[in-house]
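If you are new to this repository, start here. Below is one unmodified record pulled from the training split, so you can see the exact layout before writing a loader.
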Amino acid sequence: MTLPIEELGRLITRKRGSRGIRVAAAEAEVSPATLSRVENGNLPDLATFAKICRWLDVDPARFLGVQRNPSEASVERAVAHFRKKATVSKETAASLGALILAAQRARQARAELERGE
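And here is the target side for that same chain:
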């Protein structure tokens, strides 16, 4: 099941509970200002996203709409890092992510064809 990225802030609020932002941020290994921004709906950069997902014990793939396949564990992956800029909308970021995933799948399919699988 895919989680909307907006759910990230609600999950942070739920996990943080009555603890202060500084305590929760230290646990998540991000700055208090960053955790507060993400909790209030701003999109984090990829490194921060990974740290927060690890702290929340949530697989990042659930937000990205990616289904993990155990046979893909050793597959070489294409990776891109985005930082949020005011000029990039959520829709644009989601479209870019989908484009990268499609290119990755096409690359994998081509490699399989070349190997004769």
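Two things worth knowing about this chain: The chain has two domains: 7-64, 74-115. DSSP finds six helices and no strands in the chain.
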